[in-house]
Amino acid sequence: MEKRVVFNHKLLPYLLLAPQLLITVIFFFLPAGQAIWQSFFIESAFGGDQQFVGLDNYTALFNNPYYFDSFKVTFVFSIAVAVTGLSVSLLLAVMADRVIKGAMLYKTMLIWPYAVAPAVVGVLWAFLFSPAVGTLAVYLTHMGLDWNPRLDSTDAMALVVMAAVWKQISYNFLFFLAGLQSIPRSLIEAAAIDGASPARRFWTIVFPLLSPTTFFLLVINMVYAFFETFAIIDTTTQGGPGSSTNILVYNVYKTAFKSFDYGSSGAQSVILMFIVILLTIVQFRYVDRKVQY
């Protein structure tokens, strides 16, 4: 017989959900509501005075060419982080899954970067690639590469992408490794007996069976690139040189706390929120059809 959990106390399920619901309301719904409210006003940089302007903040944004530059930078950055991060993580997971001796040591070392705070990741990579004292930057210079993320926009974008990918690799690695270990070995062994090469076994058996995990991580990595890379950008390039690494979430911060334009910052937050919601819907509606469950 199927066993079911029965709550004799009608309030108990709601009490168990209350802490999570409280956190969601305080840290998501209230800030989102405040951003929507502020987007319809202009206010003094020192607070106190507010004036209702309707959709003027949104109109000003869409008439600002620099804001559209942030769109381009964000999409290039997010695609680079998602594709590079998933590719490297899958390669590491496949290699770790084949290791027999010292497997736990390898897996533990690959998981460690996830425990590092994003701000620390940014400082670490900024130091390693500093044109003046960075070990890796000096090595690149000796190889004849003119590396300077403070002046070259391509170098700056490469730096923040590498830092963001390194921070997220551990998370992706964990899910890919779990997915690989859940694939029945009998399928791979049967393909090997039929004469399929390792590459063919991977692309025809392993990778299709990993498609649910890959799809999930694609959504997570896109959201990560849009929202959770603020600290990395702030500690490495501060959106520069120029606006070459000024992604949307960092532009929200600059508008609010450097330009003190809280109305425009609120409007940017609302637009960014809708972009991520729309992106997630598109991924689940269209990309999900390609996933083999």
From TrEMBL:
Keyword annotations: Cell inner membrane, Cell membrane, Membrane, Transmembrane, Transmembrane helix, Transport
Organism: Advenella faeciporci
Pfam families referenced in this protein's UniProt entry, alphabetically: BPD_transp_1
Source organism, top-level taxon: Bacteria
One GO term (biological process): transmembrane transport
Keyword Transmembrane belongs to the record: yes
Localization (cell): Cell inner membrane; Cell membrane
Family: Belongs to the binding-protein-dependent transport system permease family.
Domain ABC transmembrane type-1: 71-283
TM stretches of this protein: 12-30, 73-94, 115-139, 159-180, 201-227, 267-287
Protein name: sn-glycerol-3-phosphate transport system permease protein UgpA
GO cellular component: plasma membrane
Oligomeric form and interacting partners: The complex is composed of two ATP-binding proteins (UgpC), two transmembrane proteins (UgpA and UgpE) and a solute-binding protein (UgpB).
Gene3D superfamilies: MetI-like
Topological relation to the membrane, as annotated: Multi-pass membrane protein
